[in-house]
Input
Amino acid sequence: MTTASGRPELEPSRLLPRDILAVGSVGLRTRKLRAALSAVGIAIGIASMVAVLGISSSSQAALLDQIDALGTNLLTVEPGQSFIGGGTSTLPGASTARVRTIDGVQGSAALYAAPDASVRRSEFVDASQTSGITVYGSDLSLPGALSATLQSGTFLTDATAQFPTVVLGSIAARRLGITDLDARPQVWIGDRYYAVSGVLAPVTLDSSLDRAALIGLEEVKAHWDADTTPAKIYLRTDEEQFDRVRAIVGAATNPEHPEEVSVSRPSDVLQAKAAAEGAFTSLLLGLGAVALLVGGVGIANVMVISVIERRSEIGLRRALGATRRHITSQFLTESLLLSAMGGVAGALLGAVVTVAYSVAQGLQTVVPLEAVVGGILAALIIGAVAGLYPSMRAAKLSPTEALRTV
Amino acid sequence: MSLRLSNVVKEYPGGVKALAGVDLEVADGELLAIVGPSGSGKTTMLQIMGTLDRPSSGEVWVDGWDAAQATDDELSALRARRIGFVFQQFYLLDGVSAVDNVAGGLLYSGLKLEVRRSRAREALEQVSMGHRLGHQPSQLSGGEKQRIAIARALVGEPAIVFADEPTGALDSKTGASIVDLLRELNAAGTTIVVITHDVELAASFPRRVSVRDGAIIGDERLDLRLVTT
Output
């Protein structure tokens, strides 16, 4: 700007950062209800996203804890498909002894099938009523190998395995109506009664055992004259040697047909479950994002109305020396404050929902920090985008147009 | 020289000529009324003099600064530091105390809040509103609101104050007290330009510039010493 007398430059208009905040919050302070309502949209979006992430993290944490506790070093060896006969193959009778000699195997347990054996509550129940329960002869080391615990009673021991004694899986016990071991219940297997000595708690690493009845190996040999080929072998390996053991266990079990041996890692199933929950989380997150978007449109709407309503205030501020940038920053600040309010309230609400859910479900509470920070950040970005057009529109108003009385 | 307009023309899109070559000079410390009926172009004149709008052609010098050539930011700076406005509708912010409304006049000067508030208190004392510092506009009468608005225009110690129909929304008695206040402030050294359609009100000012159809048709100076003797 030039002057007639060549005086020093006129100092430009200046708005202190602290004043930007004060000016940007005038609209919110004088229209509290509207501000609160328009922040609610953002709050709902952020709350749902934080809660979804929090709840899934909490339940995944529980699942991962379980995996950690149960260990990932368990292998299950089962008969696979027979390529020659077309049917199911069998594991050689000596395979249990052979796998035990593999370097790196720390423990093992085998199950032996009792063919066509059915379990019934008493001899008077029809033989076709199997209740879907499978009977196995079991090694005594089974609970240790599978990290399985008993819901009640005791597992088979050296002594009880010699006699007609059975341990039931949790579902099997329920199906047979056995709840109280003090009553010394008995079940009918094959052609005799077996005393129920214990009931297993649900076995996470192999849920098929929940529907099994386990008796002593000698019992199977004696009464089903089976050729005692193992139906399943569980192996605990040294953590470091797991991959090596996994690679050679097929050949060790059945040297003639290693391809007919199926080897699996039960903890893979749990990990797949955790991954599946993650996929579901993505879907819910998408829904939260839609809510957030709708909240953002709500803020943009309120800001446009606010600019129209406060035309004369904009004109006054320009007359008092505000530049276009000052007007832009005022309305942008207002929009950012609105969305920040929504974001913080939403993050808090989401955290509360997560805590409530995990306490109710007995899970360990995990509120992921990145979800909270990310949620508030997302709210701010939405606020900036939503406020951009209205605030630029406010700045574009010429002072005379803004001051014109309607 | 507080203000100089030289051959100022303002044409709106559509060919309406609001100002058809206006020349005007206002010296430091003057108090004058620009008077004319509605549609005469006096509001356009105020907007151009107050740098709220630009002329289509001609020169505008405010407090020695070339307003016709300045950028938008430079005009804002000029308004923030050298020009004060008083409006018919007061334009006070609702829900904001008198002292903060007045301090708002210094908002874009970059001064700290404490400094702005202490100067606002002084300005309110100057317009006899020292007893209403904490009141909000809704708790004040029209005359009191206009005093607050005048304090806001004065607080930055501008080179020139433009008052657009300052008594237009007030009853005649209150209006007269506002005119008295403007006269007092002028006596204390402030250059004041009042825009009004009220010929009677204009008659009480030492200088009257009459406007009609976008041109100045009269510029009378009244020698107040003659009147008072």
Observations:
- DSSP finds 13 helices and eleven strands in chain A.
- The interface with chain B takes residues 1-5, 7, 10-16, 18-19, 23, 26, 29-30, 312-313, 315-326, 398-400, 403, 405 of chain A (CB under 8 Å).
- The first helix of chain A runs from residue 17 to 24.
